[in-house]
């Protein structure tokens, strides 16, 4: 006021202090921060951008526009620091009195600026609106004027607006986060449902696929079973047809063999008759010569003695008579039962030891009686014994060179013999016949077959003579005997070959090569049979019979291609055992073979005899009788039994024993 001596009040600067702690979470606040409200907005924008970047799901709301604040009447407020102005009328007196002090400020007086930079905004929703946000501490004065009061009100309103905007922003952010969380949960739920649905679909697909696999496997197994059934039916039909065909062939063969036997018996009877007649004539001649000699001697004794002519006359009378008598005495002596039948007129047709012929007749008679019994049994019984015979043939075909195999087959054969449904005579006859015919096959194992024969015949001794009879009927050299060719005794060469054992198929005689192969196989079986020794079992036809065979062979049989093959096969199989038992005696027989038999073969100078002659000579020179023949000792097991199943028919063929022998045919 004019004229007043009261000094004017000086506007002091008030300091706004934020009612908050000086540090938050260990971070100290600046004592005098210099930031504006625009800086706060930029900080919030940066915070939102960081939230958008760090979120795995994009936020649905993104602020594109800066925040703007409005007043109570909707006017836009500036975030800059405000400036308060005062008119000239209110301070006229002050200007006059303080002209020296404020001489340069005539129009407007610039008042101190108030910044809201130190306001602390709490992020907590629990802050109360009634709590003062600003604490004003006056300095150097206790009372506040109108300007300070207005400034305080404006500041307060501005703070409330800012808080409201911040709350709205925080609420919007919370809403966005809630929506985002719900959408994320919803998306996660949808994903889980989708995965569950996919798992269910895959499970259904798996079940359906497994069902299809099971159906396919079932169909395949059904088809395989039908195929096997059809194959078994075809196999059974084939077996029946083969059995019928074999039975027909057997009967036809039996008829042919019967005719051959009759022809052979007739020829032998004729030969025997001729031999007996010749022997009778020889004896009669010898008796007549002796009688003439005695009469001449008596007459000479009665007549006067003439010294000059007595000796020459006696020598002339005794020379031929003495020779004939010596020949007769030599023929009458011989061995006890091993007399040979020789015919000079017939070219020595039948060559065999008398004892061997007697044994052959006895065995053949037993076999003939057994066949008659079996024929009556077949005709009187309604049973079909063909299945038993086929079973026996199948067991014999399955014989291999192992201990287990031999024992198993022998046990099964013994069971068949003891089966009351089939007569023992039929079983034994079938066993003998099938065993002999099996040795013709390329997969026969002679030593294994010998073991089976010993195991069976040790319980059924009558089977041995029948089997040997079948063997001698199939091969005359197992007797041993040989028949020489004579034009007077045989109408043709074919008839002679049939007597020797050649087979005729469709009116055609088999080749000499095939016949010699069969002859060798028969002799190998016979040689393996006589030398087989089984612990605890007796071999009725053992090494004693083998020694007798060799002696009869060397005494009676001539040296030719047939006897050479027979001798070589016998020595290859039985020579080792004969040497172990007889030692030096056996060596004497081998010397006879070397000196007589081989020399006789060489003297014939036949190219056909060279291979077999060389083979026998190699056996003697290399002393192969000291080496055990291959296959004689049965093996514990065969390596091929792991890969090759036990054959049930003749489809599978093992290596033949005699495939390794020299091919000298």
Automatic annotation (TrEMBL):
Superkingdom, taxonomy of origin: Eukaryota
Q: Report whether Transmembrane shows up as a keyword of the record.
A: yes
Where is region (Disordered) located?
228-261, 295-345
What InterPro entries is this protein classified in?
GLE1, GLE1-like_sf
* TM segment ranges: 561-579
Please note every region of biased composition (Polar residues): 321-334
Alphabetized, the UniProt keywords read: Membrane, mRNA transport, Nuclear pore complex, Nucleus, Protein transport, Translocation, Transmembrane, Transmembrane helix, Transport
| Compartments (UniProt record) | Nucleus, Nuclear pore complex
Family per similarity comment = Belongs to the GLE1 family.
PANTHER family per record: GLE-1-RELATED, MRNA EXPORT FACTOR GLE1
- UniProt protein name: mRNA export factor GLE1
Organism equals Hibiscus sabdariffa (roselle)
